[in-house]
Amino acid sequence: MNILITGGGGFLGQRVARALLAQGDTVNAKGERVPIRRITLMDISEPANGVKDPRVHFVRGEVSNHGAVAEALGLDTGGVFHLAAVVSGQAEADFELGMRVNLDGYRVVLESCRKAGNRPRLLFASSIAVFGTPLPEVVTDATTPTPQASYGVQKLIGEWLTADYNRKGFIDGRAVRIPTVSVRPGKANAAASSFASAVIREPLNGVEYKCPVPPETLMWMCSPARVVANLVRAFELPSEAFGDLRAVSLPGIVVSVAEMVDSLRRLGGEAAAARVRYVKDERIQAIVRTWAARLETPRALAMGFTADATMDEIVAQYIRDENIRV
Ligand SMILES: NC(=O)c1ccc[n+]([C@@H]2O[C@H](COP(=O)([O-])OP(=O)(O)OC[C@H]3O[C@@H](n4cnc5c(N)ncnc54)[C@H](O)[C@@H]3O)[C@@H](O)[C@H]2O)c1
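# nicotinamide-adenine-dinucleotide complex -> structure
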């Protein structure tokens, strides 16, 4: 089976590719486990130390370019992970770019899948940013999404398009609303949520960190390993598992920034925790304030998706994966 990962050079794209290569096979349209022959990673930029494997091909290209996507997809791709996106802070700062990549780009991917004619299985990476104010105390599977930033609007439209292309039989489409993933290694990105990684990562690497939101800020979180396992599961579940509702909110844990720093203190020591200072950034706060942080996800749990146990587990994963000396 051949698989296309858009945004394949990114944080999750690289990890999903590694996870698929490690398991070696995946599920085809008939529900049979078949070997993965090729993974095409499509992205505008190639990562410096990207996945190296004879089954992996990197294609430089824009998701908003019909020719480039059609070529990367070909006529024999059985599965697509659509992960390419302009993240929340950038989509808010550059309206045209967000619309072009997150909305028009996804339409190009969907149209290419439709025209390929083989009804590929397509997983769309949505986000809990589809939920915005006014918010109930707890967001449930029945809460109507009301995004309050362009990124969330683009993700919600993506979910609806996934459902409609699925209904028409053009794809076997499914979408997952991803919690904030932490700890993201490397440099901070333009996501408004990037503090949820940086508040752990920078102090553990000996760097002072100015946190743009107050300690009581709550986030719905999961670790990279957990979200990758859930993405692969979402891709492999039979179509009937999603039924008429093609999007599902993934499980996570609700953590305050103060609790993140407590975990940092327990696992990284007092000196690491002392590197965090709170310096308000009104632009970031204005976005984060509209996000859902407390969710109940019984549907996802019944579908076999899982959450991390604690914030300590999330921090420990980062320390282990990045060989941080504490
Ligand atoms: N990481 C999170 O916390 C999180 C949370 C919710 C949703 N998501 C979603 O999951 C997906 C993957 O997120 P990530 O954390 O790996 O982000 P990322 O920024 O690391 O990866 C996205 C990739 O898309 C690529 N890209 C951007 N514009 C492109 C274009 N025009 N054409 C082709 N590629 C393009 C980028 O170069 C990047 O490598 C995204 O859709 C994101 O919105 C992530």
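# post-check
Residues 129 and 152 are 5 Å apart (CA to CA).
DSSP finds twelve helices and 14 strands in the chain.
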